Amino acid sequence: MSSTYKIHPAIGIARVGDSDDYYIAPDTAGGLPTTYSTNPPQGKHFRDANHKLLRQAAQFKIYEYSSANPEGVVITPGQNGVKSIQWTTWIASKKASWFQFMQQTGSGMGPYVDGVNVPDAPANAPYVYKNDEGYVKNNANNPFTSSGQRPSGYDSNAPTWPSDANKPSNPLRYNLKLGTSNDPSTMSDPSRQNLILDPGPITLNGANQSDDFTLDPTTYPFLSGLSPFPISSLGSAKTDANGNLLVLGGKGNSGSTSDNGSMITAYANNEGWFDDIADGPVTATIIMDDGSQVVVDVPAWVSVGPPAYAPQILNQVNLYDDIYDIYVRELNANPALFSNGEFQTSYVPNYFSEVQPILTRPNAYQYVAAIPSLGTVNHAEIINDNPEAFAGFAAKYLRGRGAQGDPQSGPAENQPSLMPLLAGDNPISNFTASKFLGLTATQFFILSQFTNGKVDMTNPSKPLPAGPALDKATLENCVGGAFCPGIEITWITRNTSIYQALPSGFDASDLFRIKQKPMSQLTQGKLSLTNGADNDYSGGLEPGDLTKYMAQPWQADFNECSIQNINTVGPNKPAIQNGQVNIWWWPAQRPYTVATNENKDQKVQWTRGYAENTNANNYGDVQMVTCWKYLGFMYAPGSFPGAFEIERNTAAINAYQPPTPPAAATNVVAKQKNA
Amino acid sequence: MNKSSIISITILTLSLFLFAQCKEDKDSNKFTEVAKFEAVLDTAITVSSNVPTDLPSGAQNASLSEAANFAWNEFIALNWPALSQTGAANTRDYPDTSKLFGDQSVPLVWHTYRSKVEMYPWGKLPSGTTLQGDTLYVFNYDAKPQYFYKDSIPPCATASSDVAFINLDETSEISLNFMFAGVTPKTPTATNSSPQLVRFLAKGNRNYFDYITSKSYFNHGGNYYDAITNFNNAVAKDTVTPDSTRVYFPEGTIMLKAAWRLLTSKDSINQYHTTKVRYYETKNGDPCYYEDATWGLIALHIVHKTPTAPYFTFATFEQKDNILTTDGKPVEDANGNILNPFTTPTTPVVMHTDSPDSTKTTVSDPYCDANDSRLYYQNTAAGLPSKGSICVNGRYHNIPQAIINANKAAHNAIKAYNSTNGVTSSPWENYKLVNIQYKPFDSTQIDQKNNLRSTYYQANILVETNYTLQKFSGQQIALGNGAGQTTNYDVNGGNSNNPFYNIYLPNTENSYDKINMGGCMGCHGNAQFSGNDFSFMLRGGPVIEPDVPEFDRANVEKLVKKYRSN
Lengths: 675, 566
Known about the structure:
The complex is a heterodimer of chains A (675) and B (566). Chain A is 14% helix and 17% strand. By secondary structure, chain A is of the alpha+beta class. The longest helix of chain B is centred in the last third of the chain and has 21 residues, at 401-421. In chain B, the strands form seven sheets. In chain B, strands 3, 6, 8, 9, 10, 11, 12 and 18 form an eight-stranded mixed sheet that branches. In chain B, strands 7-16-17-13 form a four-stranded antiparallel sheet, with no helix packed on it. Chain B has a two-stranded antiparallel sheet with strand order 1-2. In chain B, helix 1 (64-78) packs parallel to helix 5 (401-421). At the A-B interface, helix 4, helix 5 and strand 24 of A face helix 4 and helix 10 of B.
């Protein structure tokens, strides 16, 4: 009897925390921590006895699939011929070595449908309504230079600048102290190698083992001098008593090599900064009782992200929605739903597994954002909508992507007032604008079918098998848009080339698999500086390749990604002072306004007590580098309605001393991203 | 002929000393309420194009009679012919003082106020907006009207290029019921699928528009969400938040709601104000509009924020013959006196009970299918009796004597003006004030003087017709099987054992006086409670589409969601 061994979850998510302790990542969508390394004090869920923020461990298990167990069963050393498991995982941080994150620029993507003209495309911003062409073309069309006049407003510290500031370009992140340049032509320069924080792989043999992803101080001497927080490790890996793997991320440390101290000037790209966000492959070899060794057939990936501050509130578009949409449309994962290049109108979605999850999410946003009463009441009501009722009202408000909706009005992402009413992939610059978040194409189609009365109201009697269910739930607890850049992983998840093609006879356990470069082909200290620079990952991903797109440091974006001023019409720039809407980014992941457990009738800023960003220094961002670990968590004591902030360390936030005197602290001024 | 635009006629009201003769019990649905009058020298009702800025004695000190005169002065000024509408600066809202009151050949002042969708366009900037420099919009209130819904609405048939100022894009009484005029033939025509249907519009004046554009609220932008939160928090902790931190319209802001219907040969058309309107039908399932029809004005609400009434004053007018008997005779005269008494306000009788545990609104069967000249309505909300039509015999609270007196005085003033100026075709003697709410008071403060029960429950018979609206207080139940009913309890997400207050007035202790007001003000108080300073238009924001006359369940549910009160 042949068996296939697959690791689940396909993509595990670890989250940073400043505690040595941790909890196991919830295995349900919207789940709370239930399994801890050390139980927290009575009544606490997210902090240890010293009020430190618990890390989230990504737990991996190996499932054996066979004709006897077609839905998979977890293997356990000492049982069924399995002697032990040898886990190998390798995470790295490539952020500092990668291109600067510039909204859609470099992605090679966009919301615009070929052949559909966007009305009123302005001559003075010719790229605003065009899809991005990718790093290679952008930079080939706009080479960097250090001669002549630096474009007005361009990064005054950058050694080089694009020849034409009005064309898309993709500079590199750079580090003046380490002598690296932002010129993309220097991307593979050996001097940049140490911008990749690479602790090398960890291999654990058997149960109850552990090792750290220590960064060698001789390789990275500058890390000990980072200000305000040095970095010495990217986390650790452990095996539990059952031989399962736990991957822990870092302690959330971020710091800069800059002589100027902790200066942050932008939401995503800051010279000299490093953080301990990382990602990489997870694989295993099973040692059988007879001494034979079996390498798992389907490995997994782990990615480290910020804490989940509102774990019970799901994003309207979560990472499962985002990646499943790619699998449906690009990888033929569900031919009944999508085949021959189009959605199949014969497809009948199941209400409970496909429709209801989309309709229930808006109602919970009221606990993390100040949704006016008309919205909250209607959000509550759509949960009960039948197709006719949905078609009459809510369906008219749906925002899809690209041409979905009314193509005459331009891409749905650029139309205000539709739902979701959340900021989009790029409401900031004039290169490939995408102002508002759209449902994925698959979500939009599912709801379109529901609108047309095509829905199966039978409660599915057969749930997903355990492994795929874990894959799904893990991703459902992450942001799936807007990708500017996001919280855990960004628009690289829409790049089909990062995924393993589905094998013949695939099943649900084969989805969401990152295509990996074999670890045997990788050398510590020599991870690629350029892998994916052509937006093609058909050769597989290396450690660090998923998270390298994210903000540097993550706390800067996390602070600024509260709400965003968005021009409702025309290009994103210049910002129209009196024609903008303030729209939330990811309140389900990064709350904006909340009610505390002590005063449930009052809405307050989640980041109350934070300093305000100024032109000189983004003090609020700098404060987030320290104070992220003091923020409160949204907790629903029972089933919704009602989620309230708990476990906030307000005293620590108030005691925070900024590096230089900031402007007066404020509770009301929203942080805004700027290009 | 004296063409002076202003003629003042001061009316002396007799000292009547009519003793309280309120014959109704606590929750009676009928009988005329007679106010106790004191000797008062009323302020003038003036046939003038000047919109009064405030009640002369201040809202807190004014009598109902003074307030009625204020309302009439508003009505006259707003119905003055407007300046020629060219799109030039300072033309909308402005009277043409060279024209006479009663001239219907040009748009009237209030016609030129911006329609709801002109202030809250969908996905576009308000018409006339230009860019100053790179970063500042200049909003042009005076631009000629354009109606930007989500989808461009085509004409149903060939239409003139001159866009009508009267844009009837509402077909229900805020989704609670559809309203019909039985006097109009029922049979659909080629251009009107429901000739009996009363249609509505909402508008705001220049001050309203300037405020929402200055704040970027026209698309719920700027600090809208924070401003809403600030007021919600202030109410929750009973601590006043400064006006600058919340939505707070300036003095002089006026909001309007008007009801119109098709007039036929059965109507005395010359007794109506008529003008060209745009109304919406469907063609192949999508909305389209007709525009070259001339319809009659049957009701007009004037909602005005004044220096002494920051909670807005609410005055409501009707054409005199709105309420008809089964055989088409008017129930009231032009002043509001009962000509043809009625037994019950509606057929069937509507019954309503309200307690913390249960709110019920029911009817005594059978429904009314009389097919006569009366007004009738069909409820739509889940909690209201909706299995048939309910005919209107009269008001739940008849027009009080103080208002009747003001109507008489106003009509005399208009007559005198017409005579002096040779005006022969003015319709305005045929309109009457129903009531005015000029200061909020709780149901416990109802008295026989100025806080009349009829004032508390002020309602227009064509804009607020069903039981919920004729007898409104507290709030509407927003969701569930009881939705659409009025209740005095905090049932929408609060503690249903607690009373619900819909008006919050800052007091000297930096907290709020909480009032459960009734009628128009109480209903709009719910918009205040939601943080929108009494404006449901602001609360709704960008208008996705015009309502169309479809009465199926799907359309009803859509309307409920669009206009839901909570």
